[in-house]
């Protein structure tokens, strides 16, 4: 049996990283990650009541913000 899941949501993922480092032109910047609205879909395959496959795809825009500037979605 194949089960399809789909949905939307706002905010960070559970245990999601909200900061990272970005390198550009030989310089390193500490940036904050501001997540946008997520849309996800996925399929789970069951065989005799046991999960044999579970896939999930998430699409989400983000904004990277540093003390000097931001990179838009």
Describe what you observe in this structure.
With 73 residues, the protein is mainly β. Helices cover 0% and strands 67% of the residues. The protein has no helices and seven strands. The chain has a four-stranded antiparallel sheet, with no helix packed on it. It starts with a strand and ends with a strand.
- Sketch the major β-sheet: 4 strands, antiparallel
Tell me, rounded to a whole number, the average pLDDT.
88
Total of DSSP H or I helical runs spanning 4+ residues: 0
C-alpha end-to-end distance: 38 Å
Low-confidence stretches: none
In terms of structural class, how would the helical and strand content be classed? mainly beta
| Strand ordering within the main sheet | 2-3-6-7
Order of helices and strands: EEEEEEE
Helix content: under 10%
Rg, nearest Å: 17 Å
- Percent of residues in beta strands: over 45%
Principal-axis shape equals elongated
* Strands, count: 7
Short description:
The chain contains no helices and seven strands. With 73 residues, it is mainly beta.
Topology of helices and strands:
Elements: E1 2-9, E2 19-24, E3 27-35, E4 38-47, E5 50-59, E6 62-65, E7 70-71
Antiparallel strand pairs: 1-4, 2-3, 3-6, 4-5, 6-7
List key phrases describing it.
four-stranded antiparallel sheet; 67% strand; 73 residues; single chain; three-stranded antiparallel sheet; mainly beta; 7 strands
């Amino acid at each position: 049996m194949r089960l399809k899941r789909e949905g939307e949501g706002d905010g960070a993922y559970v245990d999601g990283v909200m900061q990272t480092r970005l390198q550009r032109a030989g310089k390193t910047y500490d940036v904050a990650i501001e997540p946008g609205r997520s849309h996800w879909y996925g399929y789970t395959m069951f065989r005799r009541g046991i999960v044999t496959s579970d896939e999930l795809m998430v699409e989400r825009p983000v904004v990277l913000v540093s003390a000097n500037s931001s990179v838009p979605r």
